[in-house]
Amino acid sequence: MNNRLIAMLAALGMIGSLGIDTYLPAFDALATHFNVRALVLQQSLSGYLMGMAVMMLFYGTLSDCFGRRAVVLWAVAIFTVGSFGAASSQDITQLLAWRAIQGLAAGAGSVIGRAIIQDRCHGADAMRSMSQVIMAFALAPAIAPLIGGWMLEVGGWQLIFVFLGVFGAVLWLCCWRGLEETLPVHKRQPFSLRPLLRVYLQVMSDRGFVFLTVAGGFGFAVFSLYIGAAASFVIKILGRDTSGFGWLFVPLVAGMVSGSWVGGRLANKVHSPKVILAGYVILLLGTTVATIYASLAEIRLPWAVIPLGVSTFGLALINPGLALAAMQIFPNSCGLASSLNGFINTLFFAGFAGGIAPLVASNPQWLGLATIISVVLSMLCWRLSYFVAKLPPHAGKINSSSEKIYR
Q1: Is residue 187 part of a domain?
Q2: Tens of pLDDT along 371-393?
Q3: Domain region containing 206
Q4: What angle do CA 328, 20, 16 make, to 5 degrees?
């Protein structure tokens, strides 16, 4: 895959994260402007995430039926309209509605991006391309709050949504001019509800797919927990003010980017299961050291955050292989498989960041213990996938690549 396509897929994958993280610095300003409580404003995030998760179930299927390019263009256009609509909101009801519209479109990029990679390349090439996309995509959580904070100071909260709209418009133009269709007409699935439902049930009943997808969800929970606990971790545990979020996000993102870079370089040299195993060892080491340090020593920088960068380094070695293995089980419906994979992982992110993180955020030992448990569960699911995976009998090279993932 050429660098232009990699950059385009990375930008498509960044939409969901930018839509979340860019406007977070404006929470207080939005609450003041619309004269609502923070709990009410929180619905603008919940509605966005709910819309994104639900539509992730369908974007892959729609792209299997109508092609990747058309669905991407429609989704980016809807996100752009939703962003400009949010910027022009006159009351909280309008803002909530436009945020939901943004969310409905935000998940298309990551879902269809994985399907495009599967269309264009296989085996080590797919692993390398996925790692390169994740390396660029991982920058979004680090730069989005900085962009949002700067724009809030310069032009108010409206400028943040204008930025998202301009980003969407530019990306739409880039995709319209440079994104080629990767799914030929003769390979597309007919759009019929009954057969589609049957394929959904077939994918969800495949225990290999389920274990691989759940393994990815538990693995990414390490990242999700620290994202959800960011405010408490930075302010209460590290003792920094609101300008100190870089102490958390920089090591998390640096580990993700560097791990993705290394994973891409290893794709042609080391079999995927060995890369995944090495990633788990590094991830478990990082989470364990972070937990032990939090239990035995006074919390000091930078020692409190260095193990977090080690953890996400290992995570970046794991997730591309797990996601590709799950999709390769169903090579003829990889868009649908990508949808279900993205939907389940989004539910894991929401559950850990919004449900578990607040319960453990104020105690670094409990936070660390939660990450260790999630890593162990992820490893267990990965190993179980080896025993129960149902590989396609005539998938050629894809089948061979999938089989290597499990061994």
Answers
A1: no
A2: 999 999 999 999 888 777 544 43
A3: 192-407
A4: 30
Q: 396 burial class (0-12, 13-18, 19+ CB within 10 angstroms)?
A: exposed
> 111: domain CATH number?
1.20.1250.20
| Residue 397 predicted with pLDDT over 60 | no
319 in the same domain as 239: yes
pLDDT in tens, 225-252: 887 777 778 778 888 776 677 788 788 8
What distance in Å separates the CA atoms of residue 83 and residue 380, rounded to the nearest whole number? 41
Whether the CB-CB separation of 127 and 272 falls below 8 Å is answered with: yes
Residues 196 and 169 in one domain: no
Give 350's pLDDT tier (boundaries 50, 70, 90): confident
The DSSP line for 19-87 is HHHSSGGGHHHHHHHHT--HHHHHHHHHHHHHHHHHHHHHHHHHHHHH-HHHHHHHHHHHHHHHHHHHH
Measured distance CA(134)–CA(345) in Å, rounded:
15
Residue 122 phi, psi dihedral angles, 5° rounding: -135, 165
The pTM assigned to this predicted structure is: 0.73
Q: Both tokens of residue 335?
A: 């868009």
Cβ 346 vs Cβ 20: under 8 Å: no
Q: How many CA atoms lie within 13 A of 338 on its CB side?
A: 29
Instruction: Determine which helix (DSSP H) or strand (DSSP E) holds 148, and give its type and residue range.
Output: helix 140-155
